Amino acid sequence: MRESKEKNAKKQENGNKSKAFSFLSNNIEDELALKQWKNVVQQMSIDGQWFKKQIPLIILIVLGTITYITCRYQAQQEIILEEQLKLELQDWKYRSVTRSSELTLKSRQSQVESSLKFFGDSTLKVSTVAPYTLNISKTE
Asked: What is the pLDDT of residue 49?
């Protein structure tokens, strides 16, 4: 039993040491990463002069982005207007077909005769003589 207690105690000490070591190694790795980042920035010589040189490029990128967004918005508005106009055109076509069919219905001979009989004030009467065809020769 004593041996097992001693082994457990050694394992706990080793575990504590490894936790402390991992914490220290993480800090060391973080410091190394920070130093590497500083070296990269120094190598690129990013300072005020670099930004001053890049201002025209930054302005160009911003203006290009604004232009792109504006053109996209206008294109979407035109598409919406086109869809509305298509729907309105279809509606007018349906109205035209409806009016045409109503006119055809009202201009039929039977409808004209019934309206003349209903109002009774017309001198027009239905012909009692059957229609006949005129024969025209092609040699003339």
From this structure: 76
**DSSP letters along 23-42, please?**
HHHHHHHHHHHHHHHHHHHH
**Tokens standing for 52?**
């001053």
CA distance 97 to 5: 100
Task: Please report whether residue 57 resides in a domain.
Answer: yes
Q: Which stretch of DSSP H or E encloses residue 1?
A: none
Structure confidence at residue 5 as a pLDDT band (50, 70, 90): low
* Distance of alpha carbon 112 from alpha carbon 118, whole angstroms: 10
What are 51's two structure tokens? 């930004």
Terminal C-alpha separation, the chain = 139
Residue 67 lies in a domain: yes
- How many domains is the chain built from? 1
DSSP state of 122: -
The rounded distance, in Å, linking the Cα atoms of 47 and 41 is 9
Contacts of 11 (CB under 8 A, 6+ apart): none
Structure confidence at residue 60 as a pLDDT band (50, 70, 90): very high
Tell me if the pTM is above 0.90: no
